[in-house]
Amino acid sequence: MAIVGVGRVGLSLAVALRRAGVQVHAFLDTSPAAAQQATAVLGIEGSSDLRALLATAPSLVFLTVPDSVVASASAALAQAWASVPANAEPVAVAHTSGVTPVSALEPCLRVGAITFAFHPCKLLPVMKPAPPISPTPPLP
Q: How many Cα neighbours within 13 Å face the side chain of 69?
């Protein structure tokens, strides 16, 4: 799993998913401060660009970017898809915007991704720097 945008929503989602046993392979953020915080919390280095993020072979990519850039982030992700081998497993792409329609992910759908919207129905905390999270064993 990979996350594009590790602000409040993206980092909270990554932490919650890791606690549930989901492996977070990669993240990308244009903010050096957000990337640094995510590295500290998740214990992994951020990707340098979308091609590098896709090279980690995520089965799911969350676009947790501001509402105003969901469509352009989807278009950029679809463009980066050209670097993914043709035999790669299908990838799901989701956005977390509560106001953006799933059709904003149309560019990813056109290149073969499964697309959906996922809006967390919970207040998200402001993340403070913390030590890396230890991997949680899967539930029985």
A: 11
23-31 LR contacts (CB < 8 Å, sep 24+): 25/1, 25/56, 25/57, 25/58, 26/2, 26/52, 26/53, 26/56, 26/58, 27/2, 27/3, 27/53, 28/2, 28/3, 28/4, 28/52, 28/53, 29/4, 29/5, 31/7
Of 58, 136, 45, 127, nearest in space to 92 by CA: 58
Statement: the pTM of the whole predicted model exceeds 0.85? no
Identify the band that residue 76 occupies on the pLDDT scale cut at 50, 70 and 90: very high
DSSP assigned state of 47: P
- The residues with which 63 forms a beta bridge, in sequence order, are 4, 95
Angstrom distance (rounded) from CA 71 to CA 101: 10
In the DSSP assignment, the letter for residue 99 is S
Measured CA to CA, the distance from residue 128 to residue 112 in angstroms comes to 37
